Amino acid sequence: MRIGIIGPNYCPQLSKENLKIRKNNLKKLAKVLAKSNFEILLTPNKNSLLELLGKEYLKNKGKKIFEVVPLNDNFEEHLNVELGEIISCGKWPNQPSKFNKECDVMFCVGYGGMVLAEIGFSGYYNPKKVYIIKEFISQKLPKEIGLNLEYIDLAEVEDVLKKIKKQKSIIKMKKLPSI
Questions:
Q1: Sheet bearing 2-6, strands edge to edge
Q2: Total domains present in the chain
Q3: Which of 4, 42, 68, 112 can bridge 103 by disulfide, Cβ–Cβ 3.0-4.6 Å?
Q4: Which of 73, 113, 117 is CA-nearest to residue 98?
Q5: How many CB atoms lie within 10 A of CB 154?
Q6: Residue 30: CA atoms inside 13 Å, Cβ hemisphere, count?
Q7: Is 178 helix (H, G, I), strand (E, B) or coil?
């Protein structure tokens, strides 16, 4: 099972103090993700917040990172492609749909233009739940978008991951052939 992590790579609107808080929260999240033994999926820019999360996940002995990368487009100057296994999405416009295809659930660590596209695709292409972590947002999205969104606190992530793991085990058991 892969956990897709979506969020802005950069947050120039944040003060230095708020950026420091965001980085600390991403480090906490990375540690919890690594401990969960789930693989994660990212599209991390160089010297970015998502790159920080990926590096911290690996530093904490995370299982594996997959990166959705537009190999048929200009990505070299933007993305850090050294964190994990590359999954090509062809060109940049395909990134949100490919990202959704490759993960089972998403955790949102802030809003941005492409983040909203990734959230949007979550309801239509390989539908899934998106957990939006409250510490990374200023407000909730409108209910009328009709997607499977759940707003959680950072402190709840570990319990949510345990719940997902338990559900995954139940599904696996149901698929076992009877003797």
A1: 85-88, 65-69, 39-42, 2-6, 105-108, 130-133, 149-152
A2: 1
A3: 4
A4: 117
A5: 16
A6: 22
A7: coil
Distance, in Å, from the CA atom of 168 to the CA atom of 143, rounded to the nearest integer, reads 28
Whole-angstrom distance, CA of residue 104 vs CA of residue 128: 6
Q: What is the span of the domain harbouring residue 66?
A: 2-175
Which of 46, 40, 25, 20 minimizes the C-alpha distance to 155? 25
One digit per residue, the tens of pLDDT, for the chain of length 179 reads: 899 999 999 998 999 999 999 999 999 999 999 999 999 999 999 999 999 999 999 999 999 999 999 999 989 999 999 999 999 999 999 999 999 999 999 999 999 999 999 999 999 878 999 999 999 999 999 999 999 999 999 999 999 999 999 887 766 556 656 55
Domain containing residue 129: CATH number: 3.40.50.450
CB 50 within 8 A of CB 80: no
Reported for 17-20, long-range contacts at CB under 8 A and 24+ positions apart, including other chains, are: none
Q: Which residues contact 100 (CB under 8 A, 6 or more apart)?
A: 4, 106, 118, 121, 122, 125, 126, 128
